[in-house]
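FAQ: What does the model actually see?

It sees only this:
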Amino acid sequence: MKAGWREFYRLGNVVQFAPGAVWVTSLCLTEGVYGGLLEPVVAAFLPAAASAIDVLTAQILDHGARLVAVATADAGRILAEPGYEIADPAGEIIAEAELAWPAQTVCVMTAAQMEFADAARGLGWTVFEAATLTEEVQPLIALLPSRESP
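And it is asked to produce this:
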């Protein structure tokens, strides 16, 4: 894992001097945080701001989990965190969930991730399988708080 971060920082040190290089996050682009800070030339190349659910679904690999994310958003619930790593108290990653709501300790796993469901449950997480939620998502929606209107 350290090697990956080192490579990221090395690449960042090289690319930062490239003409037109801009470091931004998808969340801040979606929310318009950068406003007029970006040069007009650079801004012309950026895609139009996507909705928060569009940004989220672009980060979800599993089709079933994508459908679940859209269903929870349509129900007015808070959005999930994609690709969430569940760690034990010592900080060791014991499971990965395709979608997670950490404050509620609720997650959605793909069929491949379900082998780690018991470990997540052992830490108090409520675990759903994406494939079963595509048929009936109401049990998940019932556990999630409503999203506040902007």
